[in-house]
Amino acid sequence: MIIVKEYRGHIRNWEALCKELNIDASLKREAREEEILIRAYQTWGCEMADHMHGMFAFALWDEEEKKLFCLRDQFGTKPFYYYETADGQLLYGTMISQIMEKPGFVKELNEEMLQLYLSLTYVAGENTFFKGVKKLLPGRYLIWQNGKMKIERYWKPEFHPDESKSLEDWADEIHSTLKEIMPEVKTADEKAESFLSGGVDSSYVLAMSDVKMSDSCGYDEARFDESPLAKETADILGRENSRCRITPEAYFDIVPWVMYNMEQPLGDASAIAFALGCRATAEHTDICYSGEGADEFFGGYNMYRNAERYGDNLKTFYVGNTNIMKEDEKKRILKKYDPDVLPIELAAGIYEETEGLDPLTKMSDVDIQIWLEGDIYLNVDKMSTAAGLEVRMPLTDRRIFDIASRMPSHYKVNEEQNKVAFRTAAAKVLPEEIAFRKKLGFIVPIRVWMADDRYNKDVREKFQSDIAEKFFNMEEIQAIFDEYVGGNSDNWRKVWTIYTFLVWYDEYFVKR
C-alpha cells in the first residue's frame, strides 16, 4: 500500500497520465493527483518524475517496504525540507513550519548562512538558516528506510547545441510547444488570471492564454511604474487589467509578514511587491499565471551579453544573478567570519558539469540551478501560498527547457538584444514593440523610499538594535547606511539585505 504523506503542486499532463495509468479522469483534482502519484510510483518507481510535467514536491510512504520516498521537481518550483532528529527520526515537509512543530525539532540558527546571504541575498544550496534543516535540491529524490537516508539525482540540466536550425525554426518550436502546454495549465472548469508587467514573458503567456483578466502592480513614482505598459498590452490583447497600487507605507508595513511567511530571509526587494500583488489578486481569483523561467532558459538578463568577455574567469566569481558583497567587506562587517565559507563553492559542481560549453550556457546553468531555486521560485511559492493564491508558471516546463538546452547561444543573446529566439516566437502573437521591448525587470522604488525618513524608521531601528549588535560590527553597517542615505544609492541593496535578515531573525528567534 502506498500512502501520500505530503504533496504540493500541479500536474499538467494529468489527462495523459490518467489514460496511461488507468485512472478515473473524472475524479476531483486532489484525489486525481494523489492517485497519479501512487500509480506512477507503482509503475515507474524512482523514475516516475520522468513521466510528469508540472510543479511538484511530495512524500510517499510504502507500507509494504516500510520506505519513505520524497521527490522534488526538476527545477525546484515547490520546496521540500527534511531534518534528522537526535534520536534518528526523519522530519520532513514542504514547509519548514511543519517540521518545527514536530517532536524532536530543535530550533537553532545556522549562522554560517548569513555570510553567504550577504553576497547572494537569498538562501542558496541545500542548507538553510535553521541548523539541521536541509532542502531537497531540485531534480533529486530522497529514500528513508531502516533509519538510513539516500539521496539520488534523477535529473540535471544538460546542453547539446544544435546548429542545424535557423532562428525562425527555433521560434516556431518555442511557439508550437507553448501552444501545446497552455491547455494543460488549467482545466476547462477552472478560472484563472495572469500577472502582467511591461515585459515580454508575462505578455506572451497572457497572449497564449484564454484568461480575461490580467493583474499588475504600479507605483505613484512614474519612472518605476510599468503598469501603464501593462495596461497598454492588455488593451491590445483585448483583456481587462487590474492594477495594485503599491505605496511605501504598504510596502514597509508588510515586510515582517513577508519574512515570516518566506520562512527564510530573502533580500530580493521585488518579493515585497510580489506579496502585495498576490494579496490583491487573491481577492478575485484562486489561480494566476506567471512568466518565470524564460530569462534563465533563453538568455534574458542583460549581463548575459557580457558572457563571452568573462570567458573562463566565470568560475572564479559568477555565483548567480546577484553578488552584492565581496569577502573583504563581509570580513569587516561580520563579528564571525569564516574564510572557508565562500559563495563560489556553491557553483563549483555546476562549472564541472558545464566544462567545455560556452560562457553564456555556464551562466544560464548557474542561474537555473542556484538563483531560480533559491530566489525566484521560493518567492513565488511562499508569497502566493501565504496569500491563498495558486500561481502556475507555463514557461517553467521541461519541454520548454528542452528547446533552450539545444539552442545555440547566438540565438539567445546577440550584441543588440537578449532572448532573441524567444522574442521572435512571442512576436507571432504580440506587436513587435512589445515582443522586443527592452528588459526592465520587476523594479521597485525601494532605493528612493528607504532613504526617506518618512518610511525608514524600522530600518534605522533594526540597524541600531540588539539583534544587529549580535551579528555585526555596528559602526561598519551604520557607515553603509549613512553613506546610502547621504546619496550613494548603490548601497541600497546592502542595506536592504542586512535589514531583511534582521527582520527575519526578529520574527523567528525573538518574537517566537
Automatic annotation (TrEMBL):
Organism superkingdom: Bacteria
UniProt key word NADP: no
Keyword ATP-binding appears in the UniProt entry: yes
PROSITE patterns assigned to the protein according to its UniProt record, in alphabetical order: GATASE_TYPE_2 (PS51278)
Alphabetical keyword list: Amino-acid biosynthesis, Asparagine biosynthesis, ATP-binding, Ligase, Nucleotide-binding
Pfam families referenced in this protein's UniProt entry, alphabetically: Asn_synthase (PF00733), GATase_7 (PF13537)
Pathway field: Amino-acid biosynthesis; L-asparagine biosynthesis; L-asparagine from L-aspartate (L-Gln route): step 1/1
CDD domains reported in the protein's UniProt record: Asn_synthase_B_C
Catalytic activity: L-aspartate + L-glutamine + ATP + H2O = L-asparagine + L-glutamate + AMP + diphosphate + H(+)
Top-level EC class: ligase
EC number(s) stated in the UniProt entry for this protein: 6.3.5.4
Glutamine amidotransferase type-2 domain residues: 1-147
GO molecular function, one term: asparagine synthase (glutamine-hydrolyzing) activity
Record-stated family: Belongs to the asparagine synthetase family.
Protein name in the entry: asparagine synthase (glutamine-hydrolyzing)
Record organism: Ruminococcus hominis
Gene: asnB
